[in-house]
From TrEMBL:
Secretion signal, residue range per the UniProt entry: 1-25
InterPro entries membership: DUF1091
Regions annotated as coiled coil: none
Organism listed in the record: Drosophila melanogaster (Fruit fly)
Pfam families: DUF1091 (PF06477)
Highest rank taxon of the organism: Eukaryota
SMART domains in UniProt: DM8
Record keywords, A-Z: Signal
Protein name, entry field: MD-2-related lipid-recognition domain-containing protein
Amino acid sequence: MGSLVYLIQLLFFLFLVEKFTNIKCTSLDPEFAHVDHCYLKSVNRTYKYLSLRVNLLQKPVSRIKVNAATWKRYNGYKPSLYNFTVDACKFIKNPKSNPVAHYIYRLFKDYSNVNYTCPFNDDAIVEKLPISFVNNQVTSVLPVPSGDYLFSSHWYFYDIKRVTINVYMTIF
């Protein structure tokens, strides 16, 4: 029951976003992974999308862990609501094993090639994920504090942190 409550809170946190403000992707080990591109693009006032591509230079990859967390900006960013780690290889085999991770995965899986089990033999790509798709996932509004937020993810390959992806957003 507790994980269901967390899932509901995360749903409303992620999708009351009015504005994505920035995305930053960083390779911490350029010999293992290279960030080819990582950006938000505004096509017009109503269509904005997110794209990123991380080139994996030592394929295949068979051990991947992801740590994801939400942060709220007060006087700097402070922890907010979620901080969890999943074994990505086990998770892809059984996505419902972690409801929060499953929900986040469903947000981008249709716009990504990260949709099969390990070993992973391709570069990691999220292509033209519409921000409107993300915003439209919630049909009713619950009270969520307005403010600036950060969704951070740290990608560990073979137990070494190699890539970080930070998405900044504002909730009105």
